[in-house]
Amino acid sequence: MPAKLNHTIVAARDxxxxxxxxxxxxxxxxxxxxxxxxxxxxxxDLTLDFIETGGEITSQHYAFxxxxxxxxxxxxxxKARYLDYWADPGHKKPGxxxxxDDGRGVYFDDPDGHSLEILTRSYGSAGTSxxxxxxxxxxxxxxxxxxxxxxxxxxxxxxGGLCYREGPGGGQPIGS
Length: 176
Hints:
By secondary structure, the chain is of the alpha/beta class. It has two domains: 1-54, Signal recognition particle alu RNA binding heterodimer, srp9/1 (2-Layer Sandwich); 59-159, Roll (2,3-Dihydroxybiphenyl 1,2-Dioxygenase, domain 1). 19% of the residues lie in helices and 24% in strands. Strand 6 and strand 7 (115-119) form a beta hairpin.
């Protein structure tokens, strides 16, 4: 069985408020308290575990793949709360949704400044044939003509099999 993500910890100023915000916006079951955490179940075996911190919170990004009707419901809840939203992760296109990969996506912030996203198609899923390809998926990577993959890997690894010295005088091949 391949490894599956089970949970991740999310820093919050108020774990109850932040966990409740997420569960309400996404239309999920209410959070459950477990020790110092407020758990929001976001998948079959996946929880976001909110924990309070008194220190600075580094903004993280959490993206949720939803179907078209779920997108409409979540988006309506965002608008009902008069929350700001953007079509892009850099917040340069306010009040818009994106159509990347011929789906829909929107970004918004939680009470602690984490960047949340809902999207109806996984990015890159439509490739370059989409009417609205993801801006980061704009071309297909092809193998270089005249060179095979093994040759490309050999070039990237520094000639295949060479070990490099670390520390002072580092960067020099050992045994060359």
